[in-house]
Each structure stands twice: as C-alpha cells, then as structure tokens.
Write a structure and sequence with these properties.
Elements: E1 6-15, E2 18-28, E3 33-38, H1 44-51, E4 59-64, E5 67-68, H2 73-79, E6 80-83, H3 95-105, H4 111-121, H5 137-149, E7 155-159, H6 167-182, E8 186-190, H7 194-198, E9 202-207, E10 210-215, H8 217-222, E11 227-232, H9 236-243, E12 251-255, E13 258-263, H10 266-276, E14 283-287, H11 291-299
Parallel strand pairs: 3-8, 3-9, 6-7, 7-8
Antiparallel strand pairs: 1-2, 1-4, 4-5, 9-10, 11-13, 11-14, 12-13
Helix pairs in contact: 3-4
Bound molecules: adenosine-5'-triphosphate (ATP) and magnesium ion (MG).
C-alpha cells in the first residue's frame, strides 16, 4: 500500500475535445496541507473530483487513502471530506439541524453527541439555533467545514473554501485547518489567495492540467530563477506604469510603498532600469522574489487559460 495519502499518476481527463487534465502526478503525505494553485480553468476542480471518485479519469490512476480511485470510488467518498467550490445547506434549517441531517446521512452513531461536539470545536455552539440562511459568509464557511468533517475523515479536499470571505474569517478558518492537520488530518486545498498559499506546508502549481512547480513557498519562490528589483522613493506608481512592457520587464507592481520589477533576463532588466532611472530618483535594491511575483510570472503574459 502507498505510503502517501494521495498517490496518483499520469491522470488524464478531457471534456469533448478539450483536454483539461494532462498527465498529472501527485503525491501528498499524511498530515500535509497541500495548496493547489493555478489559473482559472487549469484543472484544479477536475483533479479534485477525480481524487474523490466523482469523476472517472480517462487515463492514469492511483490511490487515495490506499483505495483505488477508479475501483474503490464509493469507499473513498465515505472516508474523505469534500467541500465544493459552491457548497450548499438547507437555508431554512438551523445550524444544528443541518449538521444533524448530515450526521444522519452518514449514519453516524451517537448523532446528538457528535453534532454538539463538532459545533463546539468549530465555535458554532452559540449559533446552533440560527437559521443557516441568515449566517454571514464566514460562518457559512465554518458550517460547511463542520459538515464535511463530522464523519471524521482522514483526508479533506477543499475547493476554494474561503472564496469571498473576509480576511479575519479566512484566518480563523485556516487556524481550524492547521489544528486539524496537527491531529493527523491531510488536506488538499485549492485557493487563489496568496496569504493562504503561504500557510500551506507545500504548494502545487497547475498549468494546463499538469503540475509545473511544487515545493514549500520558499522553495517555489527561490527556485523560480526570477530576478526581482525593489525600488522606493517618489513616484513609484508612475515608474511601475512606465516600466511595464519594457525590455526584460515581465512584471512591475507596487506593494505598499515599494515597487517590484521582475524578469528572467538579468541583463535586459538591469539595462532597462538603468536607462529609466538615470537620475537616481528612486532607491533600488535586488530582493528575493515574493511568492506573488513568482505566481504572476507562472501565470504568463496575460493569456486567458479559461
Ligand atoms: N463537466 C464539464 N464539462 C465540460 N467542460 C468542463 C466540465 N468541467 C470543467 N470543464 C472545463 O474544464 C476546464 C478546467 O476546469 P476546472 O474547473 O477543473 O478548473 P479550475 O482550475 O478549478 O478553475 P477555477 O480556478 O476557475 O475554479 C475549464 O475550461 C472548464 O470549463
Ligand atoms: Mg475550480
């Protein structure tokens, strides 16, 4: 049996003529929080659906929790927690009624006790009698998380679980994920948020249905080969605007009060900066690229992957 919780090789999936997943190989170890990143349409949701047996791969295969993703798909579904990109509950039932319903579907023994316990753990106890439809976005997200861990899965597949939720609620949601990972839960989570990517133990970056980069946030940033210069001083916004599209400049963006200019061709980049700021109005230094610089670089020059 595989030592990995997720261990899949060379997965392929097409919809009609459109190849969506093309040769995806992924291993995730127990207790990892693996961030699944990539442009819109790069194949994240499709991959997640193949991992939980909702979608049959056209080619390739492997295991999830030691179970075959094709032959054992129904057993996999019972042992994982899956939070979809657009989850839903019964809006006219209360928090506790929704969880009780889920517990009944999973045939969880000692239902009342388990529901009370999960509400306590997720901080939902004070809202037990509120209608789900009246919760704010952040609390809905928590209810969804509670519902998908109620049956004590060993693997969580979360597809953009915090889209559209405020920064505090997102942070609290991630604290819960880290708490659960400490207790041995393995998590694969797709996200477009940079701060969330940085909270993953490992990042996997998808492009056109296969993995192009993976590693810790530091490894991804440092291994990119991207050269980044930072400038501070008057007029950084104007400088960013003027530098975009110039030779060697792949990206120019202002973070707070600092301008980041990045590219792969050091000679061209340095020449452009020198020519642009010949009066030395700005103060320049070379810095390590931020994860965001690298991910923007990986997204490429503005092509629409969808
Ligand atoms: N059931 C389907 N039938 C036809 N095309 C589909 C189907 N599901 C997904 N696709 C297409 O496959 C491509 C990849 O979709 P997928 O949802 O896996 O991307 P994603 O990485 O999750 O994107 P996003 O970040 O926008 O959620 C998209 O072009 C999408 O339109
Ligand atoms: Mg998706």
């Amino acid at each position: 049996m595989s030592e990995f919780v997720i261990d899949v090789h060379d997965l392929h999936k097409s919809f009609g003529a459109r190849k969506v997943v093309e040769g995806l190989t992924l291993q995730v170890a127990g207790g990892e929080i693996c961030g699944f990143l990539g442009a819109n349409g790069s194949g994240k949701t499709t991959t997640i659906r193949m991992l939980c047996g909702l979608l049959k791969p056209d080619g390739g295969g492997g295991t999830c929790l030691g179970l075959d993703v094709i032959a054992d798909s129904s057993r996999i579904r019972r042992q994982i927690g899956y939070m979809t990109q657009r989850f839903s509950f019964y809006e006219d039932l209360t928090v506790s009624e929704n969880l009780d319903f889920v517990a009944a579907v999973y045939e969880i023994p000692e239902r009342k006790k388990e529901v009370a316990e999960i509400m306590k753990r997720m901080g939902l106890a004070d809202r037990a009698y509120q209608l789900a439809g009246q919760l704010s976005g952040g609390w809905k997200q928590r209810l969804a998380l509670a519902a998908c861990v109620l049956h004590k899965p060993k693997l969580l597949l979360l597809d953009e679980p915090t889209a559209g939720v405020d920064v505090k609620a997102r942070r609290e949601f991630w604290d819960l994920i880290h708490d659960m990972a400490t207790q041995g839960l393995t998590v694969l989570v797709s996200t477009h948020y940079m701060d969330e990517a940085e909270r993953c133990t490992r990042i996997v970056y998808l492009s056109d249905g296969h993995i192009v980069v993976q590693g810790t946030a530091e490894e991804v940033a440092q291994g990119s080969g991207l050269i980044t210069f930072q400038a501070t001083g008057p007029g950084v916004d104007e400088a960013a605007h003027a530098l975009r599209g110039q030779p060697g400049v792949e990206a120019a963006a202002v973070f707070g009060r600092a301008l980041h200019v990045a590219g792969m061709d050091r000679t061209a980049l340095e020449a452009t900066i020198k020519g642009f700021d010949s009066h030395g109005a700005l103060s320049w230094s070379e810095v390590e690229p931020e994860l965001e610089d690298v991910l923007i670089h990986l997204l490429g020059p503005g092509e629409d992957a969808g």
